[in-house]
Each structure stands twice: as C-alpha cells, then as structure tokens.
Amino acid sequence: MNSVKRIFQHKSQQILSIYFTAGFPKLADTTTIIKELEKSGVDFIEVGLPYSDPLADGPTIQKSSHEALQNGINLDIVFEQLMSIKNTNKTPLVLMGYLNQMLKYGEHKFCQKIVECGIDTVILPDLPMVEFENHYKELFDAYGITNVFLITPQTTEERIKKIDDYTKSFIYMVASSSITGAKGEISKQQIDYFERIKQMNLKSNLVIGFGISDNKTYSKACEYANGAIIGSAFINFLEQNSVAKIDEFVLSIKK
Amino acid sequence: MTSKYQPDKNGYFGQFGGAFIPELLYPNVKELEDNYIQIIESEEFQKEYKSLLKDFVGRPSPLYFAKRLSAKYGAQIYLKREDLNHTGAHKINNTIGQILIAQKLGKTKIIAETGAGQHGVATATVCALMGLDCTVFMGEKDIVRQAPNVARMKMLGAKVVPATSGSKTLKDATNEAIRYWIQHPETFYLIGSVVGPHPHPDMVARLQAVISEEMKWQLKEKTGNENPDTIIACVGGGSNAAGAFYHYMDDEEVELIAVEAAGLGVNSGESAATSQLGQVGIIHGSKTILMQDEYGQIVEPYSISAGLDYPGVGPLHAFLYESGRATFMNATDQEALDAAYELTKIEGIIPALETAHALAVLPKMTLKKDQVIVINLSGRGDKDLETFIKHLKE
User: Fold this and answer.
1) B29 with B160, same domain?
2) Which CATH superfamily is domain A10-254 in?
3) What would the pLDDT profile of B208-244 be if each residue is shown by its tens digit?
4) Which residues does UniProt mark as catalytic (chain A) (predicted)?
5) What are phi and psi of B54, to 5 degrees?
6) What is the pLDDT of residues A96-127, one digit of tens each?
7) Which of B148, B310, B391, B394 has the most Cβ atoms closer than 10 angstroms to its Cβ?
8) Catalytic one among A29, A36, A43, A57?
9) Among chain B residues, CA nearest to A152
C-alpha cells in the first residue's frame, strides 16, 4: 500500500503535512528538517525539489528554490540526502517538483532513485491528466509510484471523478485560484468550494493546500478535508528561525 | 490545409508540443482549444481579421527586391517588409487575430509578455483599439534596454509589470504572465510567439501564416513562381519564422533557414542558440528543445536582442529542426550589428536587432546568382537605435 495512504488508515482527520524546499536554508538542512518535522509529529512531509522556473509557486517558494540552487543543491544531492535517512525516517515523504526535472534526469532513473529512497508518492503540478494517462501512468505503475493530482475551484465534477478513480494516496485540493503563498484567511467563496467537494463524497482522501498558513486556516481546512498542507508559511519561518525551533512552528499550527 | 507540420489532437508536432499546465489553467486552455479553429475558420472572423489587417495594420506588407543587397551577395534577395506594419513588426498580425478570438470568447482582460517590447506594443495597441484592459509583463532588464517601447505601451494605456525573477528577461516575463494567469484564470493570455501550451503555438502560427500566404502571390507576380529557393527568418520563440515558413512547409524544395542568436558565440556561455545548446525539455507549458543543465534547470540565455533572448524555441520549430526540414543557423551579436549597419547603408532600411540576425547569415552562405531568397524582415530598428548608436561609437 502507498505509504501516505497508510497514514490515512490510522488517522482520517487533522492530517498535517509540511512542505519544505530541499537544500534550504542551507544545503545540508534537508535531513535535519525532515528529522525535526518527524519529531514534532507531522503526518507526512513534502520535499520540494528546487527548480529554476517554478510556475505554480509564489514568491516565497520561488526565493527558497533560488537560494537552494545557489547553495548547490541538485537532484543527485537530494537523493543522497534522502538515502542517508532512509532507514531512520518513518514519516512518509512526498516529492514535489516539476516535470522537466524528471524528464532531463531520465524518467526511469528518476523513478528508480525515488524508490531506492523509500519514496512512493510524487506531486508534479505541471503534469496534466492526459499526459499521465498516455505515458506516465504506466511508468509510475511499473515502479509502484503514485501521482498526486491537484483539483481547483475550476475543476469540473466529471474531471474530479476521474481524478478520484486514479488516486491512490490523496487528492491535493488547491484552496483557491492561486499560486502558492500565505493568504491569511479563508473566504466564503473558498468555503463554498470546500463544501461542494465534500458533498461529492469522493473515495479518496482530501488534503487542502495553497494559502494555508496558521492554526486558523489549518483548522478551517480540516473541517472540510482530511487535512492540510503548509508550505510558504513554513519557509518564512525557516528564514527567520533556526531549524532547531521547527517544533515551535508545528505546535503553533496544531495548538 | 492538411500538413504533417500541423499538430495532432494533443497539440504535438512529432514529439514536441502538448499542454503541460497546472490544473488551474486547464479550463481556460481547454476552452481555447475547443474553439480556436472554429473561430479562425469562420467567415465572420476572417472578414474582421482581413479588414483590420488591411486597414489598420497596412497589409499586404510589400515584398521588396533588395537590388543592392542582391548584387553584393550574388543572389536574388527579396525582403518581406513586416517592418512596415503598424507598430513596426510582424507581431501585430497575431495580436489582431487573438484579440478577435478573445472577444468572441467573451474575455475582457488581456495579459501578455514581451521581450523586445514589440509584442507588448502590439498587444497594447489592439487592446486600445478594442477598449480592453491590458497588462504586459516585461523583464526588468528589457524594460531598461527597450525604453521607447515601454513608453509606447504606457501611452496606449497598458500596465507594464516588471518581471524581477531569474534573468529578468523574456523567459521570466513569461513565467510571471503564467503565474498571473493562474491567479486570474478569467483573463485571456495573448501570447506573443509560437510557444506555450497547445493550442497557442498552432493558433499563433495560423495567425502569422498571412506572411507566407502573401509571399506566395507576391513572388508569383514578381518572379513567375510562387516558391522561392530559400526563406530566411530569425528565431527566438519563432513566430515570424513560423509565419514566413507556414505555407511552404510542405513544399520540400523550398529551403527553410531559421537563424538563432549566438550572443557572444555559441559556446561562449552567453548565447541563445537553442537548437545547438538545448535538449528536449518542458518550458512554459510545452515540450520542446530547451537550454538546460543536466538536472533540467533552465539555463539563462543571452543575446543583444531582447526578442531572441529566450532559452527555448516553439515546438513546431523543434520539430522542423529535428526532422531536418529547416536548417538552423546562428549569428553573434556583432554579426547582427554588422548586418544591421549594412542593410541601413545599402538599402536604406534600419532593421530590428532580431531581424538583423536573419540578415547576418548571408555572408556565411554559398549563394547562386539565380537563387531566389526571401528574408523575413520581421521588424524595424527604431526601438534599437540606442544600441545601434552605442556600438557605432565604439
């Protein structure tokens, strides 16, 4: 069974996932951040693969990606870092990156490395469903890798149902028409959208991301989904605090 | 027209193309995909489009026999004068077409990206014409080096938003435009070249195809034959080249030459010669040939010419390159400057720096006296005067 899905079997509510950018703030921080997040009780962790041209990311993650690349991070180093904690880390990891990274690295080599690192779930925001169906489904199936699909307020019901059928881990519910980044609060319009999706009674688990930044927005999101993902707010925290204080951030979300 | 150079149903030219977009953009792109051919082929659209091309743009653009240039290089050289279009470049053909499509889709807010500013000016112009809200994203570096065009856009009522990420040039302006589009999916992204997710490359190529459509009858009038031996056009994203090549792609006897910007030299580390330096990759929503490192990070391109300063080419061009249908050549900054000075002196035409790259390959070719060559003179050089003057002094 998919490692993230296994989490949902034990816990169906208040799932908390944290996104961070590998190699940021310092090149060697990747493993420390994973260890600290695990200690603080995060349910699963998204490891962002820094990319030069991240279309779906807002200024905060763009900046962290840029700095991580300046620090010298690359896919080989990320995989080495993840390999080094493979036997000690028990919290499921999800890789989030852009399709071009996988394409250039070599699709098979990329999948093989992921599996070697003990990872079985990827999020590629620029991988459209038609490409998944025509090419990547077979590839991912061969390696036992699960692709996480994103849905948005614009996604049609028909398309959501199709995504629900393909989903083996969770559906990433983008909270609003936006790129990543803290928004501060959840609007009535967003609540209507969350409610609409909840009413669909999908078989897949739902996790809300983009614009979730604090206890208030996290708690609200959890009313309508199995959990939420926080990215930019955590990156901002890392910029201002040492990695040793990560538990403070996680506590502030969970309260 | 049935052609092997048209995309398949998923927007692929061979292995290149597709629509690699975040889910948020799917409805918008799908709406365009479902409607663009029907709109373009409708009688109503064609009537409005052709009327505006004639009376607003000033088409047909002349096909000028460059007598002195021909004598110098020992060939029959014709210049397709897109520089004489309203707003000074081929870009207006596409923006006139897309603004009509946007209107028919009920869109009222337009966004665009621009490098040299020609597409930004053309977009701001058609938005002014139609009374639509216009926002243009432009690299911070390009805002400085293309100041006259920035002033024009503002005068036309457009909001110019600086792209401050990455190399602060066309690539980053496109990134910012796409990010804005993600956050405002109700807007119409009036893309300026044959790049981006399907159907944009095909749509822009169809709208620029007016260039080669005119070339056919103009050449017939002037030479008795609608086909030249060779067509030369510069390529950044590749819209002027796509337009100049479009009706000739299946005429295999017509040699197609695409000229990229080599910057300070193809292997200098300061170049935009994508076909020479790139590999298969995904940029701005389509699979194409892309300058990137071994980990898929996009390499910053460089060219003296803001319009060619792009790390990829459109997917159609990637296919033309891979299939060998088009020959890809390149010209350095200096070669382009020299070619611009030469055309100015011997023909009285100041070309855009982009266009000068196409002219710059003439000395590198082995030409025959009766060889009919059409060079697509994609834009005029007013916007580049400062660069020309600066280098002339040196």
Assistant:
1) yes
2) Aldolase class I (3.20.20.70)
3) 999 999 999 999 999 999 999 999 999 999 999 999 9
4) 46, 57
5) -75, -55
6) 999 999 999 999 999 999 999 999 999 999 99
7) B310
8) A57
9) B24
